[in-house]
Write a structure and sequence with these properties.
This protein has 458 residues and is an all-alpha fold. The protein has 21 helices and four strands. The longest helix has 33 residues, at 269-301.
């Protein structure tokens, strides 16, 4: 892929900020949602703004460990949601639960660091043998394909909900807004000049948002619920006596380490074991996805990140970044497919963009109106964006297998096994531990490949 901006290129300041905002818009919704999901399940009050702060700081840690050679943004990990819920369920108080979030992230981060030390000593050649393109290609593809249902589901939802808690907007109206978002993104990326090609998602999101706003205004004026898509509640929550004050405009996030300050004294050996069981196995699962994500971004930038800066560096960056991120936001971080997809579509692999996005994430976490704006973006608009992002992830994985002879049964069985297991949603649950469909597909693909790889060419 011919990049417009390579890893070490530095766009001009004005462009850099715009590119960074686009990266943020691509990853921000998912990053903000993780604390919301945990709060709904546990009754906790984790701060989405603090999670964004943690993602920004965690990304800067990752960039530091990878020596500015890997254009990846870290965001809140969905894989650890059940672990985070266990932290609150197993604690004697909410404060202990918040302390558990930090301790759990430390456990998970240490798993990464220990694996990094082993990799540093043993090298990465074993990974190439264990996970050749015939294994890693379809695995990357299912990272995108397994999220297809999420994108389409969001495409059919608005943000305004009724008394029953369900969206009131008609799927026809939401799909229209989502398709507008998708088409504007595609047109800008395909036919736009250099600047349009670099920020198609900003144009797409703003177009979809505008369409949703117009339909919502009409729906409110004519009392037609089917057209009510855009929820303005996040903005109303900022108002104090009908206006925005300095206090509501700039707000310090509720950092996890502050809420956890009184909880560490309540932690005993039993609770520590609960946290360890909840977090450590998941860290091993996410390790497999870490390799797949870095193989994917390596194919996009045409540089093997597992060799330079090295898998040990990316693992340390991810692990320590998760610990630091959870210290502030409570959520362990992980590499984001949305960020990788954004790099692939815009052909902007500049690490300077990632660094600027991380700094902006830290700054914006204090600016309530911007957080409100992101929270107000209708699901259908983000669904339109994610159709492109997840699709590009799937295609980049399939490109890895384009030179593999699928006429050979030994290759065909490996690829087909991974695709069907991943798309079919094969998961395994051991108590509170769930092995994701991506990890299951990868493990199954490795086993099949080991069995058939020694067979003779047909």
């Amino acid at each position: 892929m011919k990049l417009i901006y390579d890893v070490h290129d530095k766009p001009k300041l004005g462009q850099l900020i715009i590119f960074a905002i686009q990266q943020l818009l691509a990853i921000m919704t998912a990053t903000l949602v993780v604390p919301v999901v945990v709060n709904q399940t546990t009754g906790a009050s984790m701060s989405s703004a603090a999670a964004l702060f943690g993602a920004g700081v965690g990304t800067l840690v990752y960039v530091l460990f990878t020596r500015k050679k890997s254009p990846v943004f870290l965001g809140s990990s969905f894989a650890f949601i059940s672990s985070m819920i266990s932290a609150f369920a197993g604690g004697v108080s909410m404060a202990a639960g918040y302390a558990g979030l930090i301790i759990g992230a430390v456990f998970a981060g240490l798993v990464y660091v220990i694996i990094a030390i082993i990799v540093k000593a043993a090298g990465v050649s074993w990974i190439d043998k264990l996970m050749p393109p015939v294994v890693i290609g379809p695995t990357v593809a299912i990272i995108g394909l397994s999220l297809a249902g999420n994108a389409v589901g969001d495409l059919m939802k608005g943000s305004v909900v009724g008394a029953n808690g369900l969206a009131v907007a008609s799927p026809l109206a939401t799909v229209l807004c989502g398709v507008i978002t998708l088409l504007v993104t595609i047109i800008c990326s395909t036919y736009g000049k250099k600047y349009g090609k670099l920020i198609p998602f900003i144009f797409g999101i703003l177009s979809g948002y505008a369409a949703a706003a117009v339909l919502t205004v009409i729906g409110n004026a004519a009392s037609i619920d089917a057209l009510k898509i855009l929820d303005t509640t996040p903005f109303k929550n900022l108002l104090c006596d009908g206006s925005i004050t300095l206090e509501t405009f700039f707000k310090v996030p509720e950092f996890t380490f502050i809420k956890a300050s009184k909880g560490f004294a309540q932690i005993d050996a039993s609770y520590l074991s609960t946290i360890a069981v909840a977090y450590i196995p998941v860290a091993f699962v996410v390790f497999a996805e870490h390799i797949a994500d870095h193989k994917n971004i390596s194919s996009i930038i045409e540089k093997d990140l597992l060799r330079e800066p090295g898998l040990h560096a990316t693992l340390c960056g991810d692990g320590v970044g998760s610990i630091v991120g959870a210290l502030f936001g409570g959520c362990p971080n992980t590499t984001y497919g949305e960020s990788v997809g954004c790099v692939a579509i815009t052909k902007n692999a500049s690490v300077s963009t990632i660094i600027t996005a991380a700094i902006l994430a830290v700054i914006i976490s204090f600016i309530s109106p911007f957080i409100a704006f992101v929270n107000s973006i209708p699901s259908c608009v983000m669904g339109g964006v994610c159709m492109a992002l997840y699709g590009f992830i799937a295609v980049s994985g399939l490109k890895m297998v384009q030179n593999i002879d699928l006429g050979q049964n030994k290759n065909l069985f490996v690829v087909s096994t991974i695709l069907i297991a991943g798309i079919g949603g094969l998961t395994l649950t051991f108590g509170k531990i769930t092995v994701t469909s991506i990890a299951c597909a990868l493990i199954l693909g490795i086993i099949v490949n080991l069995i058939v790889s020694k067979s003779k060419e047909e």
